[in-house]
Amino acid sequence: MSGAWVSLFSGGKDSSWALYQALEQGLQVERLLTVHPEGDSYMYHVPATDLATLAAESIGIELINVRPEDFDTEVVTDVGQQGDTEIKPLEAALTELAATLPNGLAGVTAGAVESAFQYDRVSAMADRLGIEVFAPMWQQDPEALVTAMLDAGFEIRIIQVAAAGLDESWLGRQLDADALTELQALHDRYGVHILGEGGEFETLVTDGPHMSQPIKLDGQPEWEGTRGVYQIEDAWLD
Fold first, then answer.
1. Which of 27, 106, 172, 174 could anchor a disulfide with 22, C-beta 3.0 to 4.6 Å?
2. Cα–Cα distance between 41 and 193 in angstroms, integer?
3. pLDDT, tens digit, 9 for 90 and up, residues 88-124
4. Of 134, 167, 194, which residue sits at a domain end?
């Protein structure tokens, strides 16, 4: 299919891996698109999305931001309805972008792994727009995916945790081979997802083969008893 590709991009490991795989396969990714939800979200990665700007600069692809003011402020209590509501500003942004691209929009990349809630809504949106979805992680083995990321040279930092077995020591920690071994043990004991697919943890990719400069971070952990966030106070390209 001719036209440009857009990478649905948060700066986390899953969306970054989908982007990297798209580039490796020769897809013409001409834009990154970051959604910045306000508060918790069922559809989108939430923490540190503002750092996607630095990541985009390092990657060398123009970034489009969808901000909280673009979201419908109607309060909904049904989870499915909230997911449908959250997809609307993304679809509107892609519709607007498609009209400006010389050859139109071919498709979007997505980092979905096991969440049918997310994947089904992105796929339905793509059908409405007449575009394709490139989701190279979909229903792949989580452990194999993390290993592939590390083997490719991804540098991944854990910036938020919310699961039994994940304590303050994980905040700001690099997801490396040792961390993976510990996550495997926590998976066996508590059911923690190796990729944090259920929101157990969130990440930021600070370096990789698709980036020209690494992202450096300065911050400190903020622990709330059962969950916490690595509060980033400064970030820059090195």
1. 27
2. 18
3. 889 999 999 999 999 999 999 999 998 888 899 999 9
4. 134
